[in-house]
Amino acid sequence: xxxxxxxxxxxxxxxxxxxxxxxxxxxxxxxxxxxxxxxxxxxxxxxxxxxxxxxxxxxxxxxxxxxxxxxxxxxxxxxxxxxxxxxxxxxxxxxxxxxxxxxxxxxxxxxxxxxxxxxxxxxxxxxxxxxxxxxxxxxxxxxxxxxxxxxxxxxxxxxxxxxxxxxxxxxxxxxxxxxxxxxxxxxxxxxxxxxxxxxxxxxxxxxxxxxxxxxxxxxxxxxxxxxxxxxxxxxxxxxxxxxxxxxxxxxxxxxxxxxxxxxxxxxxxxxxxxxxxxxxxxxxxxxxxxxxxxxxxxxxxxxxxxxxxxxxxxxxxxxxxxxxxxxxxxxxxx
Length: 334
What we know:
This protein has 334 residues and is α+β, with helices and mostly antiparallel strands. The chain contains 13 helices and 14 strands. The strands form 2 sheets. Strands 4-5-8-9-3-2-1-10-11-12-14-13 form a 12-stranded antiparallel sheet, with helices on both faces. It has a two-stranded antiparallel sheet with strand order 6-7.
């Protein structure tokens, strides 16, 4: 059933998303390089997830890449083992209003060998660029299947603890910010003003300024799709078109994962419609899964949907048994 598959994909995506904490947390150095003009920010702390049921899926793709193809050879030569070496990943979307594409900045914290990484990059055609704020490497220009060139990415092997990758302007700006003592994001400038919506002790979190992504807002307004055009799903999509900010966070508790997702809207009527529509969709999911995955019914029943201030929030816990089940079903489909 399509709604069953949609729930499984959504739940697993929430658990493994691709979405700051106290001063001692490892991502603080990376967050200090997030530009204040960021349109979205996502943080995943792999070091907190390695011992959970999520770990096998989170790292399986990296392991597969490590064993096959050019990417695998690069990591082998650079002595890079993502499962062991990467602790925290911060992904930043830099999407100016009206832009047709999004520049991305990725910040990796862990244990790296900058010299071996640089050597492996050079043997694959990357060229070194020296600047006042530090050196970085430009990857060879790639051509897509359509023959269009995708441009050159950049990566800076900053230190044994930090890698910076993304578009060349984004990497240049991050290096300059590091030299200058950091950006103003963490102090509450730009999207950083929304950090109070996040529990900075979360194992993963994300903030998305939807107003900076017109294509997303336009897509949310389209009815139909996998939801089968149900009244509740159509109403939900319509309400989400008026949401200006999304936040997501998840925290590991033993083997379970607590998740919270919020949509912000200044309009009270929109919030009420969003809350009612979400309750309808969750009820629809319960009906959809009760035959094939009855264990999900009780999980869905315990999810809470509330309006608080200017946001509507969905929160609940995904038990380890459910996480394993979703991972197994996803692997079977693949």
